[in-house]
Amino acid sequence: MGFLNLFIVALIPVVKTLIITAIGLVLALEKVNILGDAARHHLNNLVFFVFTPALVSSSLADTITMSSLIKLWFMPVNILLTFIIGSVLGWILVKITRTPRHLHGLVIGCCAAGNLGNLLLIIIPAVCKESNSPFGDSTTCSTNGEAYAALSMAIGAVFIWTYVYNIIRSCGSRNTGSAISIHSSGQGGDILPETNTQPLLQSEDYSHNGIYQSQESQPLIDTDRNEKVPLQKKIKQQFKILAAKMNLKMLFAPSTIATIVGLVVGAASPLRKLIVVDSAPLHVIDTSASMLGEATIPAMTLIIGANLLKGLKKSEVGVWVIIGVQVVRYIAMPLLGILVVKGAHYFGLVGSDSLYKFVLLLQYALPSAMTIGTITQLFGVGESDCSVIMLWNYAVAAIALTLWTTFYMWLVS
């Protein structure tokens, strides 16, 4: 495949993202006011509870089988490594640039979480359809590529909603506890603006004035009896502290449950014949989920564009932070990814499938996940700053992603 053809293949999905972002920006203008604060809040809830789970479950059920699960066991490990490496580099970045504390989670999240879903779903099939693709037969390449992209998207969604979600939540609550505390009207508390509400947060973890009450303050010594607490009680107490910090409820977020459902349906042959195949009696369920899932990426991108309006007016993210995120995502991460995948292949953890290795490498060179914008919107912390980072991230991706895609194809062929 020539460089020009490859450039167009990699450029089109990024340009689509930028166009939809611009539409979201226009819809948020005061004269239009279609995507105002309340509208973005409700759209975020739709993305979180409906669109994303539908996309994840339908994609996995359609493309993943038991044999492919066994073959792709290293992919979750590789994705976890992208999050760990990105988090370390993001932490170094916020220390060097002295990023405002409540934005630490946002910057680290943008460095850690790549767009493991829609870009792969667009780029890989497009590469496979090219007549001179290095990955062989286009039909086989497309089938395998869709399976790789679907599993990548599902595993990425789980890590984002369990790991990145809690990082942004933790960093944001340290400085804006009152902004993210939840009081329902039925409890007689003050009602905050809709953009700052998130029903998934534990209201009991916050005091009446919105300040987070950490369970770390509970002593491990029984002061009444002046005796040490038994070891079993200490362990239970420490587990409660960990649960309070991490919000373990998010381990079973809708996207996580959808991943489990999609894997079970796809891997279990009887369920697959019942729901997934074209002649299945319950095939309408799978097609309905697919239709809902198609709205995920446009909805998230529109929200990013709408939040960008605030960022253009006022943003706390400095130029060096924006540059640093690009360096992490498009220079440091791809180079380290080559070492990881090459090392995995050397030790026999990854087979000789060139398309599989290409996908593993590409996971290190993608722009930041659009879902981060949804998370910041849910908490009401750093929405405009996130939009500015995303705008530059995807603008640079038009060139950087194309160059890395070209190099990776040469490397695995």
UniProtKB/TrEMBL annotation:
Protein family per UniProt: Belongs to the auxin efflux carrier (TC 2.A.69.2) family.
Function: Involved in cellular auxin homeostasis by regulating auxin metabolism. Regulates intracellular auxin accumulation at the endoplasmic reticulum and thus auxin availability for nuclear auxin signaling.
A Pfam family: Mem_trans
Organism: Cinchona calisaya
Biological-process GO terms, alphabetical: auxin-activated signaling pathway
Keyword terms: Auxin signaling pathway, Endoplasmic reticulum, Membrane, Transmembrane, Transmembrane helix, Transport
Superkingdom of source: Eukaryota
GO CC aspect terms: endoplasmic reticulum membrane
Protein name, per record: Auxin efflux carrier family protein
